[in-house]
Design a protein that fits this description.
Elements (H helix, E strand, L loop, with lengths): L6 H6 L13 H4 L1 E2 L6 E2 L1 H14 L2 E4 L6 E5 L7 E2 L2 H8 L3 H13 L3 E10 L2 E11 L1 H8 L84 H15 L10 H11 L2 H6 L10 H19 L4 E3 L2 E3 L1 H11 L9 H17 L5 H23 L4
Antiparallel strand pairs: 1-2, 3-4, 5-7, 6-7, 8-9
Helix pairs in contact: 3-5, 4-5, 7-8, 8-10, 10-12, 10-13, 11-13, 12-13
Length: 381
């Protein structure tokens, strides 16, 4: 019997390991750069390793010769189906953390989410999550030099340091990218006409169709911070407070930054709409109107009335915080998309005179419904 001279090494010969593989380079590529001291996003790295495992095909061998005669996928459908609950159960994290990690991988360009409506046994299931793996992007991030050594590790050409170049991945690093002062600057293809003048106030009496006013509203910052600095502060405070702080009601710039971060606005405006659950320009217009309406609800002074219920900005903030699924990037995306579905359906079936007022009522209903669901989920009631 061969021996290495080390008992532990010899004993490991008897164990056949299988499952996920994590290349060392991932710890330097998949980094949470929005922190004061950037660190590897360990949860995202582990989730990606699991996704890659499922996308690696099984070998089909001839029983007689042992030769490989084909390959077979491991999952049932054309893409890997997962839910945030399944991921949280597998990796011992919350659903919010699971979603944040998937969003991080999507911003890195290596994974893409797809939401489908499925029918099974007479039941309709909406927003079923599928994960698509971009193998070309994965290879680019795993082997930055473009070469693979015999041991499977990336090789460095002469004169190249151990530091991984930030150039190919810089635009994907961190959580959500900073909020641009031109919300349509990177957004491709829209069939709407945008006015050159934007307003920080949204009138509740405005009955203009959303397609003519689908520009996100930005006011001139008064806190002296850059967009990046403000977003970094907001992210840190959201996690520290586990919610949007009440002080944000008196700070419109931070309030807007928090809403945009929590609903992934920067992501949805930076990729082709047909590749997301927004799907088309008309739904994008409605989506932007809903975000503007939510911000207006949080900044409006005095009493507000939605669906015959009286509230105020503080009440809206409490409802939003109670309904949110954690406070990471994308924590209120599901709320926005449920409201978007309801609002779009109403536009098709009902003559609406006051689009903004109706959008606020839809948001109020959805937030209250989500608050009840979250209370049941965490056994608060």
């Amino acid at each position: 019997m061969f021996t290495t001279g080390i008992p532990a090494c010899d004993l490991l010969q008897e164990i056949a390991f299988s499952g996920n593989v994590i290349p060392q380079v991932w710890y330097r590529v998949f980094v949470k750069s929005d922190l004061k001291h950037p660190k590897p996003h360990l949860l995202a790295i582990n989730i990606l390793a699991d996704i890659v495992y499922w996308y690696r095909p099984r070998e089909i061998r001839d029983e007689g010769t042992g030769q490989v005669i084909g390959f077979q996928k491991k999952f049932r459908d054309d893409k890997l189906q997962r839910s945030y609950a399944q991921i949280s159960e597998q990796f011992g994290c919350s659903s919010g953390q699971a979603k944040d990690a998937i969003v991080f991988l999507e911003h890195m360009g290596v994974v893409r989410r797809e939401f489908r409506t499925l029918q099974s046994n007479g039941m309709v299931y909406t927003n079923v999550l599928y994960l698509d793996l971009d193998v070309a992007r994965l290879k680019e991030l795993t082997y930055p030099s473009g070469e693979i050594s015999p041991d499977g590790c990336p090789e460095k050409p002469d004169g190249v340091s151990d530091e991984i170049s930030r150039t190919p991945v810089s635009e994907f690093r961190g959580g959500c990218a900073e909020i641009s002062t031109d919300p349509y600057g990177k957004f491709p293809r829209t069939n709407t006409e945008n006015t050159t003048k934007t307003s920080t106030e949204i009138s509740t009496e405005n009955s203009i169709h959303p397609s003519s006013r689908a520009r996100a509203d930005f006011s001139t910052p008064t806190d002296g911070l850059t967009d990046e600095q403000r977003t970094e502060q907001v992210i840190a405070e959201l996690f520290a407070e586990q919610g949007i702080p009440e002080s944000y009601l008196r700070n419109p710039e931070k309030l807007k930054a928090a809403v945009y971060y929590l609903c992934e606005f920067d992501y949805y405006r930076s990729v082709p709409i047909e590749k997301t659950e927004i799907r088309n320009a008309e739904r994008w217009d409605n989506y932007v109107l809903l975000i503007n309406s939510l911000i207006a609800m949080l900044t409006q002074r005095g009493t507000q009335v939605y669906c015959n219920e009286e509230t105020n900005a503080r009440g809206v903030l409490e409802a939003l915080n109670a309904a949110a699924d954690g406070f990471s990037c994308g924590a209120i995306s599901e709320i926005l998309f449920e409201a978007l579905d309801d609002f779009s359906e109403a536009l098709d079936e009902t003559h609406i005179k006051n689009y903004t007022g109706y959008a606020k009522a839809v948001l109020w209903n959805v937030m209250n419904a989500y608050r009840v669901r979250q209370n049941v989920k965490y056994a608060v009631i």
